[in-house]
Specification:
Blueprint (H helix, E strand, L loop, with lengths): L1 E4 L14 H9 L3 E5 L10 H6 L3 E3 L2 H7 L2 E3 L6 H4 L7 E4 L7 H10 L2 E4 L14 H18 L21 E5 L3 H12 L3 E6 L2 H11 L3 E5 L2 H10 L2 E4 L14 H4 L7 E4 L20 E4 L2 E4 L9 H22 L1 H7 L1 H4 L2 E4 L2 E2 L2 H7 L6 H5 L1
Parallel strand pairs: 1-2, 1-4, 2-3, 4-5, 5-6, 7-8, 7-10, 8-9, 10-11, 11-13
Antiparallel strand pairs: 6-14, 12-13, 14-15
Helix pairs in contact: 6-7, 11-12
């Protein structure tokens, strides 16, 4: 199979869809790989490394999109990239379609086959291609929140861990999944006063057993969220409904009860955000203020630590990329129901039920679509 790796073009996005090691693996299996020149140079992956691994260096994305059978990316295709997709071309990347009707429409119109990293599942009910970036984003959320709390950044001037004689910051994490656990772990490590909210009693029990009195656990309800948010210096939004738009759990009215200069970090922003006042920002201009509260809503948070993120992501995606290349997408999807869960768009049809529901499209099951 001829596989193309274009350079990412989203604002401040330096990750790359395949490392030289991944290229070497694909080439060893008899595939051809085209990599856009300088795709990984910003994170220390040189053109020479890609060539040594067997890749053909290409100067323009147009040539890659025009000839590759499968496109492997990191972030969702931007509008001009969507317009370069060809009928029957395979796209393997993060999509986050539910809050993005324009991208969804363009992918439908392109007649391509789009498999989303974030809805591929595993036998344990997890999301193996989302998990590594969720780990990164959860840990980064505390870094970003701590920085935003500094007075020079618009925050109230609080140190997360405090110092002897001065109380630490109160951190509330909404959601006890991969993002939430990693955020809580980092906040605990910095000495903050941390509470995590979730609706799964078994998850709260497991967290209590793991962290003991260092982590407070609460059942998530409107009342508990309202109470904790009002008392917090930093709130991390870490909720996820796979494939679907995130629920709005923190309202504008709740912000009015918070302390001026408190910080919200919305890690769910890729799925539309879990705070009513959230809108996507970039690493170039990451924060804004609503009701005196600083909002950090960067839609590609892991791109801020692009080298770490690239290796973590491609470690997870490579086996699936190999299956798609070795077997062809239809056979690979038929053989693996978990990879099949990643199929979001197939030749003009929406094949992810959550996306179809949220955006008002007819749903066609992946099984029927590829049969």
């Amino acid at each position: 199979m001829l596989i193309g790796i274009p350079k990412e073009i989203k604002n401040n996005e330096y990750r790359v869809g395949m490392t030289p090691a991944g290229v070497r693996e694909l080439v060893a299996h008899g595939h051809q790989v085209m990599v856009q020149r300088d795709s990984g140079s910003a994170i220390g992956l040189s053109n020479q490394q890609y060539e040594a691994a067997g890749a053909q260096l290409i100067d323009t994305p147009e040539e890659i999109f025009a000839t590759a059978e499968m496109i492997i990316k990191v972030k969702e295709p931007q509008p001009n990239e969507c317009k370069m997709l060809r009928p029957g071309q395979l796209l393997f990347t993060y999509l986050h379609l539910a809050p993005d009707p324009e991208q969804t429409r363009l992918l439908i119109e392109s007649d391509c086959i789009a498999i989303a990293y974030e809805t591929v599942t595993d036998a344990q009910g997890g999301l193996p291609l989302l998990a590594p970036m969720s780990e990164v984003a959860g840990r980064m959320a505390i870094q970003a929140g701590a920085h935003a709390l500094e007075k020079s950044q618009g925050g109230m001037g609080i140190l997360l861990g405090g110092v002897p004689g001065v109380a630490p910051a109160k951190v509330t994490v909404i959601g006890g999944g991969v993002v939430g656990i990693n955020a809580a772990r980092m906040a605990i490590g910095l000495g903050a006063d941390v509470t995590i909210l979730d609706r799964s009693i078994p998850r709260l029990k497991a967290l209590d057993e793991q962290y003991g009195p260092r982590l407070k656990t609460l059942y998530s309800s409107v009342e508990s969220i309202e109470h904790e948010v009002a008392a917090s210096d930093l709130v991390i939004g870490a909720v996820l409904i796979p494939g679907a738009a995130a629920p709005k759990l923190v309202t504008r009215e709740m912000l009015k009860e918070m302390k001026n200069g408190s910080v919200l970090v919305d890690v769910a922003i890729d799925q539309g955000g879990c705070f009513e006042t959230s809108h996507a920002t970039t690493h170039q201009d990451p924060t804004y203020e609503v009701e005196g509260i600083i909002h950090y809503c960067v839609a590609n948070m892991p791109g801020g630590v692009a080298r770490t993120s690239t290796f973590a992501l491609t470690n997870a995606t490579l086996p699936f990329a190999l299956a798609l290349a070795n077997k062809g997408y239809k056979q690979a999807l038929l053989d693996d129901p978990h990879l099949r869960d990643g199929l979001n768009v197939h030749r003009g049809n929406i094949t992810c039920e959550a996306v179809a529901r949220d955006l008002g499209y007819d749903y066609l099951s992946p099984e029927k679509s590829i049969s």
